[in-house]
């Protein structure tokens, strides 16, 4: 694996973790949203990832057998969570139905915080990977100078 491949893999991980953090922050911001532009309460979202090859088909043909299984990650899409909404009895709320119930998104703060910590750890590990690749490249340049 060369330096650029290591950087590509780290960059794909950074991009994926950033997308996950954006969706988590959107979920946290809309935890009490009872009415969206679509009309209903906010629907919790999550991010779907997919492993993706780092090399183009031409690069894969030119690489040796050990480097063929290198893969990065990409965001496949943002998925709407199909959990049912929470019903809370609040007849004074402007979005309450005829029986006095308000529908809130089923977003658990603890779950979202755990997902955020996982995404942050993934982001940090990808940053460390990129930093390590840069240090190795700089050391290789130093060896070549002497």
UniProtKB/TrEMBL annotation:
Stretches assigned to the Flagellar basal body rod protein N-terminal domain: 7-34
Keywords: Bacterial flagellum, Cell projection, Cilium, Flagellum
Record's subcellular location: Bacterial flagellum basal body
Origin superkingdom: Bacteria
Domain Flagellar basal-body/hook protein C-terminal: 99-142
Complexes and interactors: The basal body constitutes a major portion of the flagellar organelle and consists of four rings (L,P,S, and M) mounted on a central rod. The rod consists of about 26 subunits of FlgG in the distal portion, and FlgB, FlgC and FlgF are thought to build up the proximal portion of the rod with about 6 subunits each.
One cellular-component annotation, GO: bacterial-type flagellum basal body, rod
Protein family (similarity comment): Belongs to the flagella basal body rod proteins family.
Protein name (Swiss-Prot/TrEMBL): Flagellar basal-body rod protein FlgC
Residue ranges of the TM segments: none
Upper lineage: Bacteria, Pseudomonadati, Thermodesulfobacteriota, Desulfovibrionia, Desulfovibrionales
InterPro entries: Flag_bb_rod_N (IPR001444), Flg_bb/hook_C_dom (IPR010930), FlgC (IPR006299)
Pfam family, any one: Flg_bbr_C
GO biological process annotation, one example: bacterial-type flagellum-dependent swarming motility
């Amino acid at each position: 694996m060369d330096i650029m491949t290591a950087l590509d893999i780290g960059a794909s991980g950074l991009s994926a973790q950033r997308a996950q953090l954006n969706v988590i922050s959107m979920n946290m911001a809309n935890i009490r949203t009872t009415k969206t532009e679509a009309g209903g309460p906010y629907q919790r979202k999550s991010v779907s990832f997919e492993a993706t090859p780092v090399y183009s088909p031409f690069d894969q043909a030119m690489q040796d057998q050990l480097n063929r299984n290198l893969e990065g990650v990409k965001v496949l899409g943002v998925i709407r969570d199909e959990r049912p909404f929470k019903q809370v009895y609040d007849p004074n709320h402007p979005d309450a139905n005829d029986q006095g119930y308000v529908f809130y998104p089923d977003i658990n703060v603890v779950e979202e915080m755990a997902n955020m910590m996982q995404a942050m750890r993934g982001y940090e590990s990808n940053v460390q990977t990129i930093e390590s690749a840069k240090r190795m490249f700089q050391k290789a340049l130093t060896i070549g100078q002497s």
